[in-house]
Sequence to fold (527 residues):
Amino acid sequence: MDYYAALFLCLCLVTAQSGTAEASQESLRWMEKMEMPHKGRISISFAEFIRGLENRLLNASFQGSNLTLQTSTIQTLVFKLGCDFAGLSLNSVALKPVPQAPVRHAMQFPAELTRETCRTRPRDLRLICIYFFTARYFQNDNNASLLNNYVLGAQLGRGHVNNLTEMINISFWHNQSLEGYSVTCVFWKEEASKHRWGVWSPEGCRTEHPSPSQVLCRCNHLSYFAVLMQISPAPMPAELLVPLTYISIVGCSVSIMASLLTILLHFHARKQSDSTTHIHMNLHTSVLLLNVTFLLSPVLAMPSVPESACMALAAILHYALLSCLTWMAIEGFNLYLLLGRVYNIYIRRYMLKLGAVGWGVPAFLMLLLLAIKSSAYGRHAIPIFDSQGNGTGLQNVSICWVRSPEAHSILVMGYGGLTSLFNLVVLAWVLRTLHRLKSRRGQEKALSTRACRDTVTVLGLTVLLGTTWALAFFSFGVFLLPQLFLFTIFNSFYGFFLFLWFCSQRCHSEAEVETKMEACSSSQTML
Fold:
């Protein structure tokens, strides 16, 4: 009898072991299926592949407290946890090596991880870690590459773990120094894109640099994590953030008030307006729109604000910048006509054509970018260096802006560079023309005197209308620090400078009118 009982017990053990092996083999077969090349149209999306793998790992039966499975590009770990969980630290050095993952990585989970789940569902918990050593499952519209092509994910049961006070630490190493690169810790935000099953987002994560070749991501939630890496200019030092922000807020606020006052004065003196004044007012309107949207940009970039609102504001901000740059170029073009035609200019429907260019071209470019890549606008993370102890930490300051590197290069830097170059060429031609007028020997003395007097006006106008934006191209090396402050001061107070120029021109015009009236009255008295 004892013999049959022992035989029955052995049979049960063998059956249980075969069932456990079959459950783990099912997960392994699914991982191998994910790695198979899929040519043409596939019936299963990447999201379904990953969800299927997560479900199989959560349902897998195995003996002991953990299970490890791996293929050439995927490694999975499953842990049985209890409510007495005291934390867990995983390091690739202690795990079975993966051929496609020669560089180290690590994850550290705090004791707080299971606290909320144990309050609501005090059962056996299961923590799954899925490491992808390829980026093919997480395609993003952003062309930034992933550090090592590593995506490290974790999930606790079937619930969501968010807003932890004790951060989850995810460490990524590289075999070379990361100096000169802009690196940002991100997580995969599902259903945040119309064209992909998710996008990379920096929300809830902080980027730190314990060493030149290591990136430490400190995040308050569980998800799939990676490090976006781009070659870019050096990020702004954190100690400069407060003064530059203060200058920007004060400058843009003053410029808003100055632009509003200038427009009101223009409507008050509408009888004295001409095409040149109308161009100035259109420029003031574009500057006003630019300053208002710029001040709203950090507010709508907050995580609590819907992504659609940030995208809309980013598109308007880009449109305002393009309009401002276009009206700067129109100012230069108008100066060329004024001096080239000896202050006698007439073009049929001149302002209508200029308005179509000044407002229509930026609108066309903005709508074209939206049609080509709707995700080009949204929350844009600006890396800020913050010194911490022996290393250097990275914070992310988000604004609503153009987040496509190609669009930023072409429709921001390229467009701004062309307008600045055009105005510089106009400035050189105007100076040469005025110099010729000044150097005439006693001929047309009054005209020469007026040309000398107008030199200051033309110089001031042309410098303010575009050349200060050329400072954006000097954000490197020893020029970085002065460029940051000069660019911020000149361009945030840009509307105020235009207001001063408008006041000086108006006072000058009124003085000329009074002089002419006095001359007429004196001539009538003599008669």
Q: What stands out?
A: DSSP finds eleven helices and 16 strands in the chain.
